[in-house]
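Appendix B, record 7
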Amino acid sequence: MATINDGNLTLLDNLKRRDPGGAIAKIVEALSLSSPLLQDMVWKEGNLTTGELVTTRTALPPISWRRMNEGVAPSKSITDQVTETCGMLNGQSVVDVKLAKLGGDEMAFRASEDKAFVQAMNNTLESAYFYASTKVNPERLMGLSPRLDAISGNPYANQIINFNGGSGASGNDQNSIWLVGWGDETVYGIYPKGSVGGLQYKDMGEQLVLDSNSRRFRAYVTDWSWDAGLVVKDARYLIRIANVDTSNLLATGKLLIQDMIRATERIQDLDNCRPVFYCNRRVREFLRLQSQDTSQNSTITFDTVAGKPVMMFGGVPVRRTDALLSTESPIT
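Structure tokens (predicted):
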């Protein structure tokens, strides 16, 4: 089983240290239960107020053999810099004061509406981590899919596995399985320098607000915000199994299993990160079915973690996330 680097902070670890016992930490704790990404992601404060300037090594220094009484030419490694930006996610909960008081417990009513906003913020951000692109929407963050969006001409093509060797991928019913090696030197989430990471909220109290006809009424207002980004410092810790054709999935066989084995072999070092597989409900369903195929020697097991069964593949957790779509177009 791969060793998990427990020295890396998750978002909940970060929030508990900054706001022990506070409301935000409790909100994030509840949120983590429904978001596999928040359970696993490593988070760091960016070195910029807008994100993080990342320096990556693109080539090692050349090394020479020498003879006695002969010198060696000096050499150096080659590095590159890229700026990863944070997107600003915002929402406002507006609850009519009269409506909130109808049930006799206005705070409980507000809390129920706030819970919906928390889930909506989570769903939006989790989807962005997979699909958002600053090339298309500059105000957002750069997600995973735009980084590995083509096999041909991509310098990181080796990090993309074409499902079933690319056989039969057609139509917009494709999906992807991701293997992400989280770590503070590999792939991690960021929040702006000088800020507090995670979901933020501010109770704005009772205010006069405008309805759709510009008429005023009294309402309780809560402001929600989340500034976050994603850094892929070392792309060798990111693997995409692409072109998983939903219409070609079978309950038996080993096609998914074989490509997941390829993924674990292509990631740089399973012991130097927190590796996690991510797939949607449809793919995970077929993984479970294929794991029961007695004609195959499946590497899928189930471990009990915190009293709950967790699907494992070769010691790597397999998480289910609804943020991954089954309507992706084929990539070539």
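Remarks on this record: Confidence is low (pLDDT under 50) at residues 1-7, 17-22. Residues 11-57+78-320 form one domain.
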